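Hey, quick one: can you model this chain's 3D structure?
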Amino acid sequence: MSTEVRAFVIEQLADMNYDVEGIDDDTTLGPSGVDLESLALADLAVRVEDRYGLKFADDESEQLALMTVGEFTALVADRVAAATSDQS
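Sure thing. Here's the predicted structure for all 88 residues.
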């Protein structure tokens, strides 16, 4: 699941006109990495929510900006797995 989520996140960043060349799991989403501003981060979060049926809390946006691509991918994959197991 992590691989699929990571590919989706990279695809969405490219769609949002961010340079995805050289992005790896250690690249931060915020200022020292991809450099997503708050609106772009919110846009990415909404795209992930729509794709995977998740919901991020309003107060999570600051935490998301500090995450690396790998951490964000793992968070989404874990939440998808938890939601799937809750439905079983």
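One thing worth noting: The CA atoms of residues 43 and 79 lie 19 Å apart.
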